[in-house]
Amino acid sequence: MSASVPQSKPAVGAVFSALSDPTRRRVMELLAHRSSVTASGLAGELPITRQAIAKHLTTLEQAGLVRAAHEGRETHYELTPEPLTGAMEWMALAGARWDERLARLARRLARQA
Amino acid sequence: MAIEDVAVRREVILPVDRKTAWAALEDPQELATWLADEVEIEIEVGAQGWLRWEDGEQRHAKVEEVEPGRRIVLRWSESDGPETLVEMVLDDVSEGTRLVVLELPVARLEAVATLLDQGPRFSGGAELRTRQGPQMVAALA
């Protein structure tokens, strides 16, 4: 499925599966604070390659979480209002925040160990 | 899916003993190195204060429960989000210490507590699970 507009509302399972990955949650979190992102743009902010980011964005698109718009050579992605309801958005973002906090704590304590 | 249906659970193995891990949880200065960027709250039952992040977010927090060396339950809220309960529990494991974090909206816990017609309104998730056994595990799974 590569259509820019999902044909029907994706299953909740697809949404959670898409959000089970910390990088994809991070992408969702970044998207929550801006109107759109591109794979190249995110490559400057995340410690993975542009290609890997493009793959994650495709997964998010297939789950119906983001929508793609082609502008010139770049594909811009923006959050779709559905199917990420307020509750699911809370869970995705709260989870992403804990991933970051716990990674910071583990790094700090590893230095003390 | 409603806000009453959601919860976040994370766990991490910390390569230190439980005493060292606890120090990172109960000291506001330590909390400011990982939980938030600025922490103004004492980890004592009933204490209230603030946590702030570099991105401008800030949350009012209250300490609900403290079991020294093992467990902290906070209640916090941000201006545009639901009030949630955060439980942090430490356990000894062979590699060091396991920290399990459970965050869930207070609305959810109230719904579950009402369902089970059980005691304190704002007890933490793991404690509830201990007391309620499989029923609570199913409800919070």
Describe the structure in your own words.
The complex is a heterodimer of chains A (113) and B (141). In chain A, helix 1 (12-19) packs antiparallel against helix 4 (50-62) and helix 2 crosses helix 5 (86-112). Chain A is built from five helices and two strands. Chain A is 57% helix and 11% strand. In chain A, strand 1 (66-71) and strand 2 form a beta hairpin. Chain A has one domain (12-112): Arc Repressor Mutant, subunit A (Orthogonal Bundle). Chain A has helices at 12-19, 22-32, 39-43, 50-62, 86-112, and strands at residues 66-71, 74-79. Chain A has a two-stranded antiparallel sheet with strand order 1-2. Chain B is α+β, with helices and mostly antiparallel strands. Chain B has one domain (7-105): START domain (Alpha-D-Glucose-1,6-Bisphosphate, Chain A, domain 4), CATH 3.30.530.20. Chain B has a seven-stranded antiparallel sheet with strand order 1-7-6-5-4-3-2.
SS field, number of helical segments of chain A: 5
**Can you give the mean pLDDT of chain B?**
79
The chain-level structural class of chain A is: mainly alpha
> What assembly state would you assign to the polypeptide chains in this entry?
heterodimer
Helix and strand composition category of chain B: alpha+beta
Could you write a compact summary of the structure shown?
The complex is a heterodimer of chains A (113) and B (141). Chain A is 57% helix and 11% strand. With 113 residues, chain A is mostly helical.
Topology:
The complex is a heterodimer of chains A (113) and B (141).
Chain A: H1 12-19, H2 22-32, H3 39-43, H4 50-62, E1 66-71, E2 74-79, H5 86-112
Antiparallel strand pairs in A: 1-2
Chain B: E1 8-14, H1 18-26, H2 28-31, E2 38-40, E3 48-52, E4 58-67, E5 71-78, E6 84-93, E7 96-105, H3 106-116, H4 125-132, H5 134-140
Antiparallel strand pairs in B: 1-7, 2-3, 3-4, 4-5, 5-6, 6-7
Helix pairs in contact in B: 4-5
